[in-house]
Amino acid sequence: MNWTWFHKLGSPKWFYEISGRWLPWLGWLAAILMVTGIVWGLAFAPADYQQGNSFRIIYIHVPAAFLAQSIYIMLAVAGAVSLIWKMKLADVALQQAAPIGAWMAFIALLTGAIWGKPTWGTWWVWDARLTSMLILLFLYFGIIALGQAISNRDSSAKACAVLAIVGVVNIPIIKYSVDWWNTLHQPATFKITEKPAMPMEMWLPLLILVIGFYCFFGAVLLMRMRLEVLRREARASWVKAEIKSLVGKRP
Prior knowledge:
This protein has 251 residues and is mainly α.
C-alpha cells in the first residue's frame, strides 16, 4: 500500500497549499447548506404534533451535538497520530479543533436546556445524556487549558493527546446513555441504519443542516490551522515567499 499521501499530511507546506484549494469550496458549501436547512426547518417544515413549534430547535441542537462528539473523536485520532508518528500537524489539528468542539458542546447544552423547559418543565436535570455531554464540554476545556498552560510545545502536545485519547471513552457513553439508563432524553432522532421516525419534510432539512455544520467545521478548522502553521513555520523559506506573494498582490 502506498502511504505517500499519509506522509504528505505531515508537511506544513503541502497542507497549506492543498487546504487553500479546499477552503473556498467548503466555505460556500457550508453557507448554502446551512442557509437552506435553517430556512426550510424554521419556516417551512411542519410543526410537531406533540411539541408544536418548540421542536424546531432540533435544527440547531442535533447538528451541534453530532459535531461536538465527532470533533472529539477527531481529537483522539489526531492525538494518537501525534504520539505514534510524531506528526506535528496532527497536534496543530488537535489544538485548533478543540475550541470549535467546545463551542459546539456549549451550543448543544444551551439549546437542549431551552428545548427542555417546555418539554420537561425544567432547564436542567442530571440526566445521563445531559451529564455526559457536560463532561464532554469539560474535557474540551481541559484540552484547551493544557495547551495554553504548558509552555513547552512537545510536552503540551503529549499532554493534550493523552487527555484526548483517554476522554474518548465518554463518546459511547453519550451515544448509548439513552439505551443503558432510564433517561428523560429522547432516543436518537434518526439513525443511518433505520428508517427515520419523522416525515421527510422534517428530517431532510435536519440532514442538510448536519452536513452543513460539518462543512462549516471543516472550513473554520482549515482557516485556524493555516494561521497556526504560518505562525509555527514563520522562519521557513516557503512561508516568507508566501508572505511576499500576498503582499505583492495588495493594491
